[in-house]
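Example record used in the benchmark description.
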Amino acid sequence: MKRLCMVASLLLAGCSLPVSAPPEDVTHTLALPAQVSVPVPLPAARTLQVAAPTAAPGYGSPAMAYRTTAHELRYFARQRWVDRPARLIEQALLDGLAAGGASLVAPGSGARPDYRLLTDLVRFEQDFTGAPSRVRLVLRVQLVDVRERRLLGSETLRLEQAAPSEDAAGGVLAANALLEQAVVQVASFCRRAAGV
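Model output (C-alpha cells):
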C-alpha cells in the first residue's frame, strides 16, 4: 500500500511539470526583391503570356525538398513554402518580366498574345551531399510564337547557390537568390529566342 501511494504521488507530481508547446511550422516566402534589374525580354509592342509552370514529380507541393543522398528525396518536417514552388516561380516570372518592360497577357483573358512562355520545374531542392549544402534549381523554358504556331527556342536552365547555413533557413536564402538569377536568365532567353 505504501508503495502504491508513492507511485501515485510521483504520477501526480509529474502532472504538474511544465509542458513545452510543440514546435510550430515555419512558412517561407520565395519572391523577387523589391528592386530587380531584368533585361527587356521582347520586341517593343509584342505581348507575352506566361503559362502556369508544370512541376516534376516530387516538387508539386509546398513541402521544402532536400536530399542527403543522390537518389533519395526528403522533405523538411516543419518547414514549408507559402505555396507550391511552381506557382511562386510563376509569380516571380510575371513580376520580373513586367519589370523588364514586357506587356503581359493573362491566361483566360480572351486576348491573344504574340508569344507564350512555357516553363517546367524539373528540380528544386537543397542538396546536402556536399559541404556547403547547395540549392539547385532546374527550369526548362520554351518560347512559342502563338500567331505562327512555332517554337522559337527551348533551353534548360541549371542554377545552384551555396547555402549560408546548413539548415532550411540557409536554403531559403539561397533559393531566393537563385530565383532572381532564374528570372534574369529567362528574360535573356526570351530576348534571344524572339530575336531582340
